[in-house]
Amino acid sequence: MNEMFLPLLSFGVGIIVGLTGIGGASLITPMLIVVFQVPPAIAVSSDVVAATLMKVVGGIKHWRQQTVDRQIVQWLATGSVPGALLGVGILHQIKHTTNLDLDALLIRCIGVAILLVTLFSLIQLIVLTVVPNFQLPPLPLLDLTTTAGRAGAIMIGAVLGCIVGMTSVSSGSLFAIVLITFFRLDAQRLVGTDLAQAAVLLGFTSLGHLGLGTVNWSLVLPIWLGSVPGVLVGAKLCQIAPQRLLKFTVYILLVIVSWKLAYSV
Question: How far apart are the C-alpha atoms of 30 and 110, rounded to whole Å?
Fold first, then answer.
């Protein structure tokens, strides 16, 4: 497919992100690999750099609106930034010192990461639709005024950061689950804090991927051109769209795509 279609498809992805909150990387990275036949290493690096602009713009806006929990961002980023750089370092080590097929490894890692996140979200959506009052026993809150709470936030950030560094997937969705589960943030502060931590994380991760030399600016710029206005349009449509039906459709699509990537030969 001609790469002139990339801004148009990125615009569509941006609309979906604005409508549903589903992470752009979960859609854009597989799109680059499956539709445009971009090598996975280049797809991951280019998507990380492309996603950074959108997260930074959103993070700055929420920071000014004071809908960011700065303490949570600080301690998650303390773990996620070095974790992400470790993930990038692992890719660099594999690329330069082993005979492993990096593209094949990345395809499977991306597929598994998206599949796990999507299945979790899909099951949660189905359960809440069938049994609206269903609630799982709550996990303990992380108290960031204590040493144990800060250590827990750093460890969680490090693990998720490493996943993001290696695959570009879930800088938003996985951390959103953490913010809901361990910090019980309200809707506005959830979105603002998630965007702010993603901006910090992807900013440093982008530097690592730029060092790998696998960023393709002919992909990054068209993605920016399409996805940024798409997100704005999606946010406007969000008030009238049937959220559960739309999310269910997108989740099913993601399961199919991620399964294909995870079990590709």
Answer: 8
CA distance readout (Å), 248 to 18, 71, 125, 240, 254: 15, 33, 8, 16, 10
161 in Cβ contact with 81 (< 8 Å): yes
- Burial of residue 179 (CB within 10 Å: 0-12, 13-18, 19+) is buried
In terms of phi and psi (left: phi > 0; alpha: psi -120 to 50; beta: otherwise), the region of 37 is left
Name residues of the chain where pLDDT drops below 50: 265
The angle at the Cα of 226, spanning 264 to 238, to the nearest 5 degrees, equals 95
pLDDT of 264: 60
CA 106/CA 38 separation, integer angstroms? 12
Residue 146's Cβ-count burial label (10 Å; 0-12, 13-18, 19+) is: exposed
Q: Can you give the pTM of this predicted structure?
A: 0.70
Tokens linked to 216: 């393709």
Three-state DSSP string of 182-219: HHCCCHHHHHHHHHHHHHHHHHHHHHHHHHHCCCCHHH
Long-range (24+ apart) CB contacts under 8 A made by 29-33 are 29/110, 29/167, 29/168, 29/169, 30/110, 30/114, 30/257, 30/258, 30/261, 32/219, 33/107, 33/110, 33/261
The span from the CA of 43 to the CA of 31, in Å, is 9
Q: What number of other Cβ atoms are within 10 A of residue 239's Cβ?
A: 7
Q: What is the pLDDT of residue 81?
A: 92
